[in-house]
Specification:
The protein has helices spanning about 10-25, 45, 60-70, 115-120, 195-200, 295-300, 305-310, 365-370, 410-419; strands at about 75-80, 125-135, 140-145, 150-155, 160-165, 170-175, 210-220, 220-230, 235-245, 250-260, 265-275, 290-295, 335, 340-345, 375-380, 380-385, 390-395, 400-405. It is an alpha+beta fold and about 425 residues long.
């Protein structure tokens, strides 16, 4: 690769910041659990084609190119690989579902096709997706599995999700319906390089270095490499690379690397992409004969959400109001800024991982939890740090949690200064 010269004057730096803000207008809202965020080893397959020789471009110009892209039609195949270094199978078990037989209550209420749980599976392991889009009102994402397929389809004011493994479907109305209620299922994780890139650009502020790091070939397309790095020390994020189509400005590949080294924590990229208009039939869907169909309104009214209600009414946790502050989680404080921001949360009852009075936690369970983390001490007292390759959390023995994409030492320092 032949990196481009990205040295900038003060005036260019201000223009770059303005470009970031402009790019942010195109962000697809995504609720990233533990990341967001989140990406597959495409490099070996692509390296043989060589890096294209493209005209030089600055980081500011490349971000402006992304922001100005008018491409709204595409179809293709995306590969996502996520390696957060989580124990016990990663997040797949955690996100395995509040609904239906795969994670619902004993009665099997709800739907295994509900997007809230299904998309969480992308937070761990390798996945192949087929994606298609035709403007803001038509989109389809299909997760290809062994002898099965899960699809989420948005067509006008209709949203359908279908799980072929269980022959179950989920149906909801999109925002902007006659009654003004937004019933669009929440999207837990990004599913395309653009959505990953949009999330990363949110963090592009004065604590961030943004440069152009050469060129690449992705899915047969020439691309520039936008490189985003923290200027601060203490972050677990080493760098983010976004391969941007040299012709139309569409992100083709997203790679997030950790300061710990090794393979990428998140690597998502197109292996095939076509920017022509998808066939209208791509977004058509009718439930197959015999399929169980769950309406979004049913889950709103509590049908199939029994586990959620049971959790809210549990004697040890009555919902967000139990956190210091209010029902809006105002007890959550953010320490620091930029890439080393840390969330400080006061646990209800002021108790950490130690067994409560009455000995409800068996000694074996406490030892198991201790084995998953590192015991630490400081001015704050003592606690346990639970680590992944991206997100780390310090749980103090007196019931305070410090969590962020930062190193163990940074968490301990924040806890010491928080006393």
């Amino acid at each position: 690769m032949a990196p481009n010269d990205s040295a900038q004057t003060t005036e260019e730096a201000e223009d770059l910041a303005a470009g970031r803000r402009k790019a942010a207008r195109y962000i697809v809202p995504v609720a990233v659990a533990g990341v967001a965020a989140a990406t597959i080893g495409l490099v070996p397959a692509l390296a043989a084609s060589g890096d294209p020789d493209l005209p030089k471009i600055t980081a500011q110009q490349l971000i402006e190119k992304m922001a100005a892209s008018e491409t709204q039609q595409l179809s293709g195949t995306v590969k996502i690989n996520t390696d957060l270094g989580l124990p016990l199978g990663g997040l797949a078990g955690l996100g395995g579902g509040s609904f239906g037989p795969k994670g619902g209550d004993a009665k099997g209420d709800g739907s295994s096709a509900a997007p809230e749980s299904k998309l969480m599976e992308l937070a761990s392991g390798s996945h192949t997706l087929r994606v298609a889009a035709d403007g803001p009102d038509r989109a389809k994402v299909s997760i290809l599995e062994n002898a099965a397929e899960y699809s989420l389809i948005h067509n006008g004011d209709e949203v359908w999700a279908y799980d072929s493994a269980s022959n179950e479907a989920f149906h909801s109305k999109d925002a902007g319906t006659a009654d003004g209620k937004d019933r669009t299922p929440p999207k837990d994780l990004p599913t395309t390089p653009k959505e990953f890139a949009d999330e990363a650009l949110k963090a592009a502020d004065d604590t961030t270095s943004v440069t152009v790091g050469g060129t690449a070939r992705v899915a047969g397309r020439d691309a520039y490499q936008l490189v985003i790095k923290p200027k601060q020390s203490g972050s677990t994020i080493g760098s983010i690379k976004i391969a941007v189509d040299a012709k139309n400005g569409v992100p083709l590949k997203f790679t997030l690397s950790s300061t710990s080294g090794g393979k990428a924590v998140i690597d998502a990229g197109f292996t095939k992409v076509d920017f022509s208009k998808p066939a209208a039939s791509t977004f058509d869907f009718s439930p197959p004969k015999g399929a169980k169909v769950t309406e979004g309104d049913e889950l709103e009214k509590g049908k199939g959400a029994k586990n959620h209600e049971d959790f809210k009414n549990h004697e040890d946790f009555k919902g967000p109001k139990d956190f210091k502050g209010s029902e809006d989680f105002k007890g959550l404080n953010v320490i620091g800024e930029g890439w080393t921001s840390i969330a400080k949360i006061e646990v209800p009852g002021g108790q950490g991982l130690s067994a409560p009075k009455g000995g409800d936690v068996p000694p074996e369970a406490s030892k198991f939890l201790d084995a998953l983390g590192d015991k630490v001490d400081g001015k704050f007292g003592s606690g346990t740090v639970f680590k992944t390759r991206l997100i780390n959390a310090l749980v103090t023995d007196d019931g305070t949690v410090y969590v962020g994409a930062v190193t163990k030492d940074t968490l301990v320092k924040a806890a010491n200064e928080g006393k």
